[in-house]
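To whoever picks this up:

The nightly regression suite flagged DUF3311 domain-containing protein as changed. Nothing in the input moved, so I suspect the structure step. Input below, exactly as stored in the fixture:
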Amino acid sequence: MAAPEPEAPEAPTATRSRAKDHSPWNWLLFVPIVVPLIPAFFNGDSPRLFGFPRFYWLQLAWILLGVATTTLVYQMTKKKRGER
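Regenerated output under the current build:
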């Protein structure tokens, strides 16, 4: 008696396409990636903020920049309920 052959997974009938949002707002998402890579921002100890050198408080500023940019791009590119 032979073992039953495993069933092949069913191919999806309709494949989902990738999002095709070519909005120019998406280019803003490069800002929080590129800006922290500029070494000129880190070449110094001053100004100090609450006693912390520039390097440390700029790390928090980059996080806030990323959140603000992502939120702005999301709000400007989200589709209305009727457009889905």
